[in-house]
UniProtKB/TrEMBL annotation:
It comes from the Bacteria. One of its GO terms (molecular function) is nicotinate-nucleotide adenylyltransferase activity. The gene is nadD. Residues 12-191 form the Cytidyltransferase-like domain. It catalyses: nicotinate beta-D-ribonucleotide + ATP + H(+) = deamido-NAD(+) + diphosphate. Keywords: ATP-binding, NAD, Nucleotide-binding, Nucleotidyltransferase, Pyridine nucleotide biosynthesis, Transferase. Belongs to the NadD family. This is Probable nicotinate-nucleotide adenylyltransferase.
Length: 198
């Protein structure tokens, strides 16, 4: 787990990153800028319980590719979930909070994950544990209106103009951040439809 000091604001951006690409880097950059974060933890997960793992590249390879893609020192590439044998995001967040008192964390995710967020293990617990920043992705702009998570926690939505206050907000709190979008997707790259760095 990366080193962090009390009082810092830290974004948690988790995923299988299979493979990582410029679209992921764009989400991380937008989150750092719009949320005014001190750090962003790029958490490469051992796997995704909701995805087919037959085509999952080895963790070491995904870590190495992530390191090659990222050049901002504020972005910390990590895979601590594998070390602690953690499978679900809710457990990851509970451990992070317990080990880092006084640090302000916010969960970062692309809008393409918002539509299926209600399928995540204990998804409501996640929303009640940390504030959430949803970053726009192609084809997912309207998910902040239609998704089950957005409807369930509509009362907790923060206007994106107030995004910088989100990391220090008490959960539940979430915002949808519009901005530049990349058409790249890990699925397309694996299928040979697009190139990783395009």
């Amino acid at each position: 787990m990366p080193f962090v000091e009390k009082g810092m604001t830290v974004g948690l951006f988790g995923g299988s990153f299979n493979p990582p690409h410029a679209g992921h880097a764009l989400v991380a950059e937008i989150a750092l800028r719009r949320l005014k974060l001190d750090q962003l933890w790029w958490i490469v997960t051992p796997g995704n319980p909701l995805k087919d793992t037959r085509h999952l590249a080895p963790l070491a390879e995904r870590l190495e590719r992530s390191q090659a893609l990222i050049h901002d020192p504020r972005i910390k590439i990590t895979a601590f979930e594998a070390t602690h044998h953690i499978r679900y995001t809710a457990d990851t967040l509970a451990m992070i909070k317990a080990r880092n008192p006084g640090v302000h964390f916010v969960w970062i995710m692309g809008a393409d994950n918002l539509a299926n967020f209600h399928r995540w293990q204990r998804w409501q617990k996640i929303a009640l544990t940390l504030p959430i920043a949803v970053i726009d992705r192609p084809g997912s702009t309207l998910s902040f209106l239609s998704s089950r998570m957005a409807k369930t926690f509509d009362y907790a939505r923060v206007d994106e103009t107030d995004a910088p206050i989100l990391p220090r907000s008490k959960a539940p709190a979430w915002t949808f951040i519009h901005g530049p979008r990349s058409l790249l997707s890990s699925t397309d790259i694996r299928n040979g439809a697009t190139k990783p760095k395009g």
